[in-house]
TrEMBL record:
It comes from Chryseobacterium polytrichastri. It comes from the Bacteria. The chain crosses the membrane at residues 39-60. The keyword Transmembrane helix applies. This is FecR family protein. Keywords: Membrane, Transmembrane, Transmembrane helix. Residues 67-159 form the FecR protein domain. PANTHER family: PERIPLASMIC SIGNAL SENSOR AND SIGMA FACTOR ACTIVATOR FECR-RELATED, PROTEIN FECR. Signal peptide: none annotated. GO terms for molecular function: sigma factor antagonist activity.
Amino acid sequence: MDEKQHDILPPTREEADQMWGNILSNIRKREREKKKSKIITYSVAASVAILILIGSIFGYNTYIRPDIYTAEMAALKIVLPDHSLVILSKGSILKVEKSFPSDTRDVYLDGDAVFRVAKSKEHPFIVHGKGYETKVLGTVFKVSQSGKTFKVDLFEGKVLVYRTAHPKDPVTLAPKQTFTNFGISEAASVSQTADLPSATTKNKSAALSFTECPINDAISVIEKAYGIKVHYPTEIENTKITITTPNVLAETFVQTLALQLNLNIRKNNDSTFELEK
């Protein structure tokens, strides 16, 4: 029995074009679906990232970011969470951590302010200034800062003032005393607050401290602290001194300085002294 032979004819040009068109159409469709899926995935990821960012910003502003007070146009009155009162001078800025008050009540001052600190023996109140810190348990005082000059006027209670780099060498202030460095970081002066504007030169007293301080800077501080003039040999202008005295009158301090420098002292009048070889 003869088997009937079936010949398979190749597709026509039109059929081949249609087949390829179907194949390309399916490929493009799959690519569009993949692209759409990626867009959705990226969109979801971006949305989640945005929500996380918003949450982080909200959390930072709410729980971490310090509270910043700025006295822009006039003095600003601030009552802190521990009920301490701060009068921030115009142009000054106070930064308070969100953790305030904690083991220590830390605030950061740029400029001038008067503080009436709520008493707490367990939680010291520390004002961080430009290179200096003022530590108290409860008192009323004023911190003034201008350029390199740091000054503390104490009205009530007791405070410790020290350079940030030397916390173990504090200066203790009693009421009505003023601490200032007169713009010299190696120097420290403590005098009666009431003396600064009114007392005569003869009666002015001050406790001064110098640590490796150039003599010209030291003389500048001495003259400002006592309201006097001190002349000294030019050949010692590069000398550095380290000296600390208790609360003494100008003449006593100049005598101590002359002794350390191995110089003689000549007093022209109550406000003028000569240091001579």
